[in-house]
Design goal:
The protein is built from 3 helices and 12 strands. The protein is mainly β and 264 residues long.
Amino acid sequence: MPSRFVIAAAAVLASLLTPPAHAVGVNEIGLSADQIRSLNAQLTAPAAAPGIAFGSPVAYGADWGQIFGGIGGQTIPPGGQHSVDGSMLLGLGLGDSQRWAGVEVSSTIISLTDSIGDAGAWNAKVHRSLSGRASIALGVEDAAGWGDASRTNTSTYVVYTQALDLAPQSARAPMPLVFNVGVGDERFADPGSNSFGLFGSVSVHPHRQLSVIADWTGRDLNAALSLVPLRAWPVVLTLGAINLTGRFDKDAEFAGGLGFLYQF
């Protein structure tokens, strides 16, 4: 969008927020109500969006000019060497998912309690944006691992993600709902099986800086809250619980993460 159009739109919105001596109607401005709502959403949008999944991959991905990272941790059932462990991820985007296809590449460091960097793996995802705020992707996780991660099997998946508005006519709170559904092997299927498993998530966004997430990874049922603490900063905090149903004779565990996005 040309900068002059953004400035003009900002002036229009300012005039609507601060009524002048002579009230100006939508018809006089030359923009429809839907266009006003769209411009208002763009000009006041936070620098990042809250999370839409908590364990499952999503079809949205990074394009060229985007670098992202995150750090997370979770509690560990009794009997292990540590009661808490963490992981770290760094990645970047290539290509253009709007015109052709985007490629997201990242590396995961699997443990932060031992020697950092001694174990990790690579992940990659090819994603394509579709009409109507939807996307589809094909990806791999835990490929070309090193250290202890070299013993982890690579997982492959296909996933579709779609965003909808529960209240599309509301100028102040359209309340997006995002659903995510996919199929994959290894970590997306029950342990020891050679089959594929179904995974998916649903998130509701009562505020543009907050989402409530339910996620089925193919193995575990997870739930979380995701928050963008500061509107002008592209940082996302997500806190929740994993394995709520206590599958495989394991208790539910607390998990959380902090992520960031940088665009150049």
